[in-house]
Amino acid sequence: MRSKGRGNVTKRKFAQSGIVQFVSHPFYYPLLRARLLPALLLSILVYTTLFLWTYLPQVAFLAIFHGRHLAWINGAFLVLGEGAAITALLFEAFFVDETLVDVFDATLINVGCRDLVATSRALNPDATDPAKELGKPTTKAVYSPFSLRQIIEFIVFLPLNFIPVAGTPMFLLITGYRAGPLHHWRYFKLLGLTKKERNTYIGNRKLRYTWFGVVALMLQLLPVLSMLFLLTTAAGSALWVAKLEEKRRSLSNPDDVESTSHYEDQPP
User: Fold this and answer.
1) How far apart are the first and last CA of the chain?
2) What phi and psi, each to the nearest 5 degrees, are found at residue 140?
3) What is the rounded CA–CA span in Å between residue 15 and residue 97?
4) pLDDT of 200
5) Which bin fits 192, alpha (ψ -120 to 50), beta or left (φ > 0)?
6) What is the dihedral of CA 190, 192, 197, 198, to 10 degrees?
7) Cβ–Cβ contacts within 10 Å for residue 1, how many?
8) Distance of CA 47 to CAs 22, 53, 83, 85, Å?
9) Chunked in runs of 10, what are the mean pLDDT values of the chain (268 residues)?
């Protein structure tokens, strides 16, 4: 078993901890480089186009309801949200879902959940790092499924940003509530959960999944860095899985779980 890189995850801040996990482990870097240039160019194109053609009109409209000063800020959030929706859709549809699966699986191997990954893909135990250990999937491997409903809801709820002060937090909470559980879609498939079991599992952790989704979405609102934070969020979601697996296995067979754990039971 590889050394477990979980010692620093002491609070329920898995989305943020994914950044540290990704940056501090060089085996992720080839996964980033493979997608970096096309994703960077696409992100620059999307955000540049939106800010050139849609930012000022939206600020002018928001100024009617929010006043001049607040309109500039909320207008920026609105354009960033639109850009995040477009880039996330294009990234995940055409560029990165396979890479997200690799980041998620490599993280699980790195933190000691190799057996979980082995249920869905071939592994090379002689590899020098978790990323190189990944072989071809033996079953369909999807990090997060394409959700037309989520995209439509994202667009429908964007006008919440028109509401002064409270609008943007409301938008983040609603979209985070929907998006959070999708970051564990891969985990649910590895466990073989049915739709009913999956819904029950999510229902028992609604607040935690909502918070994870909110933080992930806020990271996605940062222009150009969206691609990087998509990957670090996948690493963070896998760190959370390691915590959940530790609990699940301790309940099913306490003798199989290490007696010393570096985790604390707090929200993600």
Assistant:
1) 25
2) -60, 130
3) 17
4) 94
5) left
6) 40
7) 9
8) 25, 10, 6, 11
9) 47 81 93 76 84 87 77 81 74 73 95 92 90 90 78 77 78 88 94 93 93 89 78 94 89 55 42
